[in-house]
């Protein structure tokens, strides 16, 4: 079983294998570090916490036509009796601080993603952001009847909103401090405000917890 493994480009290093973490991101031109939490699923009416995923392999890079490098890292869930594997495909690009990732969930035996409370019980990832100065939602599917087209719309969230706890569809969230910023987004397919996914933000003292 592998220990921590790292992939990198000119802008960042992404490390897999830290306990309870999907990926740890370090920006090379600053001291900024971020951690993405592993997903949470409800399987066979049992909620699998993000801390239950254990990293065990990282593939060699596949070079794509646009010079991107694609890797697949695998995690095994230690909370289930039958072997449940989370395969995370990550794509990084030369000279870019952005990366894309997607999940594939598989098992040795048939399992079911259940909805004990009547709705999807899935958290795809999360990030904790300290000393945050601004949280902004970018909406991409607001229809403007005057121009008869979809236009982007920025909405900055207030401290009062984040302290109370808010949800919003996005599909893009910007987090900023005085020194750096981060962007978390998902591929969407619904007109605002109808959405099958949403962000949840909650600020406690000096730290913002943002989950998707």
Can you walk through the features of this model?
By secondary structure, the protein is mostly beta strands. Helix content is 3%, strand content 52%. It is built from 1 helix and 19 strands. It has one helix at residues 159-164, and strands at 5-8, 12-16, 21-27, 33-37, 41-43, 46-48, 53-58, 62-63, 69-77, 84-92, 99-107, 126-130, 134-144, 149-157, 166-168, 172-176, 181-185, 199-204, 207-211. The strands form 5 sheets. Strands 7, 8, 9, 10 and 11 form a 5-stranded antiparallel sheet that branches. The protein has a 4-stranded antiparallel sheet with strand order 1-2-3-4, with no helix packed on it. The protein is globular. The two termini are 29 Å apart. 19% of the residues are buried.
